[in-house]
Design a protein that fits this description.
mainly alpha, Zincin-like, three-stranded mixed sheet
């Protein structure tokens, strides 16, 4: 967040609270529940995999901090990290497509990637996620301000 240098510390703190409240409100409107997530996966399977990828369950989880999603082909379950909540829809759709593709091809070989090419925003979404990972690695300097 960019804050004008002329703001006092009190104004800055108030402005940050206002903006964070706005972002939280936007995110709560955009966050899908598990039922909506499962419906979204069904639509994506129809659109990109001819309906062949049929998960038995699709849900958000909070225990995945090193991966964006996971799939267990043997039981048809797909889990997406809660860290995706609030990210652009095309990114969530990409991760869903990635996991749906695993229901058809378990590994990450050439056949898997050819299948995933059906989703047109694959490269863009992968770039976005790589940027998030890179930003997480940057050192945080307490009190630093962008001017």
């Amino acid at each position: 967040m960019l804050i004008p240098a002329r703001m006092s510390e009190a104004e800055e703190q108030r402005w940050v609270r206002v903006m964070l409240d706005k972002l939280a409100a936007q995110e709560s409107r955009r966050t899908l529940g598990d039922a909506e997530l499962a419906e979204r996966a069904r639509r994506l399977s129809e659109q990109y995999f001819e309906g062949r990828a049929r998960p038995r369950s699709v849900r958000w989880v909070t225990n995945q901090n090193t991966r964006w999603g996971s799939c267990t082909p043997s039981d048809g379950s797909i889990r997406l990290s809660h860290r995706l909540q609030g990210m652009p829809e095309y990114v969530v759709d990409y991760v869903l497509c990635h996991e749906l593709a695993h229901l058809l091809v378990p590994g990450h070989g050439p056949r898997f990637w050819r299948l995933l090419e059906a989703y047109p925003r694959t490269e863009r979404a992968r770039g976005y996620l790589e940027g998030v990972v890179a930003a997480d690695r940057l050192p945080h300097v307490p009190g630093a301000r962008d001017e």
